[in-house]
Amino acid sequence: MSNNNRLRIAIQKSGRLSKDCQELLKQLGIKLNLREQRLIAHATNMPIDVLRVRDDDIPGLVMDGVCDLGIVGENVLEEAQAERARSGNKGSVKKLAKLDFGYCRLALAWPQELGKQDKSWFSGKRIATTYPEILSKYLEREDIDASVVMLTGSVEVAPRAGLADAICDLVSTGATLEANGLMQGDTILESNACLIQNEMLKDAGKLALIDKLMPRLRGVKQAKE
Ligand code: PRP
Ligand code: ZN
Ligand code: MG
């Protein structure tokens, strides 16, 4: 299946970043045969394997060196790094480039019928999120005494389901908030997709391949400007 000499890149299997990731790999000249349902795709013209996984798993895979590179949202990366830092298991990953796709913001939101609210309203409230680390840090920083309810999905239905009073979730077009009758409040974090690398990577062949890909990446970014 896979071979240790091949550079392993983790990308999102299905979701907001997957199309742009595939497009980027193509623009970098990496020829892939991405058949649906396949976890690993082998490049035919370079020693590269692409793993397609859940975006939330990408930082961990790169931190642990299971994959050498990964493309992931800065929001997911920051959450994973904060979680590792807290559990004392600091994985080493470095950001090679900020990419020009996958823009979104992590924002607070609450039921529209409550109307505009300021920070003091959150005191004593329950906020549902998939980003407990980032949210907790924000609440601490802003001195807001709210509790965090961790949900891995369907965060936007939490207020209606009575699981929480408000949410802290990703907003891209705003359609999800709109469809669920939620009003957007403060932005906690702005995020783009980024390219990350395992910092402990020592393999000379892989490092040389990354050095070859980076100027191409800069070229792709410039061509879009
Ligand atoms: C985010 C978020 C909302 C949606 C918002 O999910 O959780 O569901 O995007 O986008 P919109 O403002 O354009 O409606 P994401 O695509 O990251 O998927 P995930 O929650 O499954 O990771
Ligand atoms: Zn996700
Ligand atoms: Mg979602």
Automatic annotation (TrEMBL):
Keywords: Amino-acid biosynthesis, ATP-binding, Cytoplasm, Glycosyltransferase, Histidine biosynthesis, Magnesium, Metal-binding, Nucleotide-binding, Transferase. Its cofactor is Mg(2+). It catalyses: 1-(5-phospho-beta-D-ribosyl)-ATP + diphosphate = 5-phospho-alpha-D-ribose 1-diphosphate + ATP. One of its GO terms (molecular function) is ATP phosphoribosyltransferase activity. It is found in: Cytoplasm. Pathway: Amino-acid biosynthesis; L-histidine biosynthesis; L-histidine from 5-phospho-alpha-D-ribose 1-diphosphate: step 1/9. Its EC number is 2.4.2.17. It is an enzyme of class 2 (transferase). Residues 54-218 form the ATP phosphoribosyltransferase catalytic domain. Feedback inhibited by histidine. Signal peptide: none annotated. Catalyzes the condensation of ATP and 5-phosphoribose 1-diphosphate to form N'-(5'-phosphoribosyl)-ATP (PR-ATP). Has a crucial role in the pathway because the rate of histidine biosynthesis seems to be controlled primarily by regulation of HisG enzymatic activity. Belongs to the ATP phosphoribosyltransferase family. Long subfamily. This is ATP phosphoribosyltransferase. The gene is hisG. The chain holds residues 1 to 225 of 299 of the full protein.
